[in-house]
Amino acid sequence: MAMIEVGKVGDIQPGTMKPFQAENKKILVANIAGKFYALDNRCTHAGGDLSKGKLEGQIVVCPRHGSRFDVTTGVCIQGPKVGIFSPAIKNEKVYVVRVEGSSVKVEVD
């Protein structure tokens, strides 16, 4: 698996999140109290762009229907009961994040 640089540490301030493209994947990177986390940027309910949602602590809220995902684990903690792309809301895929110098890198497969 390759580590792909998605941005610089200064691009994502604590308490914020930002979308990136890495290999053909749309990834959301969040900075929670100085630690970086990455997960898929597409809501598992109806494909909403999570980067356009709201970050509440370590929870990202999808702007389309309010599904809530823990950015540190990818776990869906609340969401509509029926998924459009699957029978039920699924957890988000998470990615390993490493900070090397000022670079934020995400491991993609």
Structure described in brief:
The protein has no helices and eleven strands. A four-stranded antiparallel beta sheet has the order 2-3-4-9, with no helix packed on it. It has a four-stranded antiparallel beta sheet with strand order 5-6-7-8, with no helix packed on it.
Would you give an account of this structure?
This protein starts with a strand and ends with a strand. It has 109 residues and is mainly beta. A hairpin with a 2-residue loop joins strand 5 and strand 6. It has strands at residues 2-8, 16-22, 25-32, 35-40, 54-56, 59-61, 68-70, 76-78, 94-95, 97-100, 103-108. 31% of the residues are buried.
CATH superfamily: Rieske [2Fe-2S] iron-sulphur domain
- How many individual domains? 1
Percentage of residues in helical conformation: under 10%
* First-to-last CA distance: 5 Å
Quaternary structure:
single chain
Total number of helices: 0
Beta-strand share of residues:
over 45%
Number of strands: 11
What Rg, in angstroms, do the CA atoms define? 13 Å
Read across the widest sheet, the strand sequence of neighbours is 2-3-4-9
- Reported by name, the CATH topology is Rieske Iron-sulfur Protein
Largest sheet geometry: 4 strands, antiparallel
Low-confidence stretches: none
The computed structural class is mainly beta
CATH class assignment: Mainly Beta
The SSE string, one letter per element, is EEEEEEEEEEE
Q: What number is the mean pLDDT?
A: 89
